[in-house]
Every structure is written in structure tokens, then in C-alpha cells.
Amino acid sequence: MANEFVIDTKDLTKQYGVLFWKKKVPALDKLTIQIPRGSVFGFLGPNGAGKTTTIKMLMDLIQPTSGSATVLGAPVWDINMKKRIGFLPDTPAFNGLMKASEFLHVCAKLFHLPRKVRYERVAEVLEIVHMTDHAKEKLAGFSRGMLQRIGVAQALLNKPELLILDEPLLGLDPYGRQDLKNIILDQNKSGTTIFFSSHILADVQEICDRVAILNKGHLLCTGKINDLLHTENLVIRIKDGNDLVAGLMNDAKECLKKDGNTWELTFDCSQPGVTDKLKKFGEEHKEKAELVEQAESLEDFFFRTIETNNKKRMEEEGGSAQ
Q: Are 156 and 262 members of one domain?
């Protein structure tokens, strides 16, 4: 039976010593997280939050100070497990003298793909990332976006169960980002679980179903995006009900008259009693009124969560200093 979680960490910790100091500085502190199979999971945080450190430990590139992690139900050092994942680091290095197809053939050999399968698969991944026309061109002449596509192509060569991407959207123009987002979603639809870090929060909200937010090595929250984001506004759309609109206008923060004798009223959910009042109104007049919840953006939630944590840390540090 397949493991429910493709990534499972418990108290995963990485500390680095500071030169001439005995004190250890935690890059990651007791991370406990589980990534469900089949999800598109966004791993978020400011620079220095511990995202790349976590990914490097999951890839067995650095060793944890303490704690444990499994990937696809196996220890991170398990060779057979690594055949089942694809990986794109945050700063991939390429031999500029190689052609795109040559580079991918070398990568395919590392997966021990048979010669016939290798040629077929290289052609397939070049098509997936829309780089077939550039297969015979040298990597030295590629833009950042083109290199990123080749990096994703090599990560897809072995048809991975889990795709781990560190900042895959960084440096891409809007067209490139949209293209790569579509590639990620297509891979997920085919059964691949996606785990990736990114600073581009609008894109994360568009394609991810779950996220985790780290700050200074600490996990602040994790869960389904829809469960994490607060409802900021309630919108009531009323058709052919001018008499109903009059009784709501005083409480609305915005009131718009639409075409076809339809009104749209927006209410701030932070006002006491507004949510209950509007839900009751919607039930009583459901033949004319439609109630729509408007959640905050992931970007707003991210900054609110980080700023709250930073303020708490400053207060704690100030209290301990006294």
C-alpha cells in the first residue's frame, strides 16, 4: 500500500556553528511536517527561513543535526527511493558547452534508462517543457528561463512520483511563469506530488492546495490554503430586490448597481455580528440573494503571519534581556 505522506519529518533540525563561537545557530529548528501524496505543496518563507536547508536535507545533500525525515516512506539516503523522485535545485549548474539534448542524455544515463527508452524520454521531456526546437543548441546561449525549463526537463526524466523544486519560478517572465505553472499542474494531474519553495505568492496561491510558512528556522503554520486564509469580506448579490437593498446599505462598505437591476453589496466581516446577520439574510431571501465569501490573499496572510511572529520574537528577546 502506498504511503499516505510522500515527505514526513519529525523534529528535523540543522544547526551551524559560528566562527570562534561555541554557540550553534539553528538554520532549521525541530521541523515536523507531513506532505500528503497527490498534493501541490508550497514551501514558503523569507530569505533565511530554512527552506533550502530543508530541501537539501531531504535530498541527503547535508546531514541534519537531529531529528528524522523520510521521503516516499524511505530514509533520505535510500538509493532506490531517489530513483522515484525528480529534483531541481535553486541554483542549477550547467555545462554551457553541452547541447540541451546532450545534457539530458547524460542525466538519463544516471537513471540507467535503456538506450531506446532514453532517446524516447529525452524527446518527451523536451516537448513537455516546450524546448524541442532548441534541443541541438548549446546551453551557454540559453536565457535564465530556458535553462530553468531544461532543469525541469531533467527532473522529469524518470517520471517521478515526487517532484521537488527549489524556486522554480524565480527569474522567469510572466509568460514563462505561466507556462511552468501549467507544466506543474499537468504533472500533478498525472499523479506526481509536487513540493516546491517560492517567493512568488500569487503563483503559489494559484496552483497549490497546501502550504507551509517558515520564519527563521521555525514552522509557523501549515495546512490547506482555504483553511488558513481568513474571510475578509462577504458580498451579497441581489437581483430584482431594490426594497431589500435599502435595508442593507448602512452596513455595507461598498454598494454597486450592476446591469440588469442587480446590486452588489460588500461587507467587512470584522464588524461585530455582520457575518451572522448576512447569512441569516441569505437564507431568508435565497431566491433573490446570493452570498459570496471573499478570503484574504495568500500574500496578505503571509505578511501578517511573518510580522506577527517577528513581533512576538522581539518581545520575547526583549523580555529575556531584562
A: no
Given this model, what pLDDT does residue 1 score? 41
Asked whether the beta carbons of 4 and 30 are under 8 A apart, the reply is no
- CA dist 100 and 94 (Å) reads 10
Query: Which residues contact residue 149 at a Cβ distance below 8 angstroms, ignoring those fewer than 6 apart?
Result: 129, 130, 131, 176, 180
pLDDT category at 127 given cuts 50, 70, 90 is: very high
Q: Which residue has the cell 523536451?
A: 126
Give mean pLDDT, residues 239-267. Answer: 80
Asked if the structure places residue 317 within a domain, the reply is no
Contacts (Cβ under 8 Å, ≥6 apart) of 193 = 6, 35, 36, 37, 38, 39, 40, 41, 161, 162, 163
Q: Give the pLDDT score at 160.
A: 95
Rounded to whole angstroms, the Cα distance separating 287 from 290 reads 8
- CA-only gyration radius of the chain, Å: 24
Number of domains in the chain: 2
Judge whether 64 and 16 are in contact, CB under 8 Å: no
For residues 132 and 257, membership in a common domain is answered with no
The pTM score is: 0.83
Cell of 252: 455595507
Are 35 and 67 spatial neighbours (Cβ–Cβ below 8 Å)?
A: no
Whether 148 is in a domain gets the answer yes
- Tell me, what's the pLDDT at 24? 72
Q: Taking 50 as the threshold, does the pLDDT of residue 142 lie above it?
A: yes
3-class SS of residue 299: helix
**What is the Cα–Cα distance from 236 to 262, expressed in whole angstroms?**
10
**Cβ contact 94:147 at 8 Å:** yes
Q: Is the pLDDT of residue 210 over 80?
A: yes
- Range of 280's domain? 231-295
Nearest to 193 by CA among 56, 72, 50, 58: 72
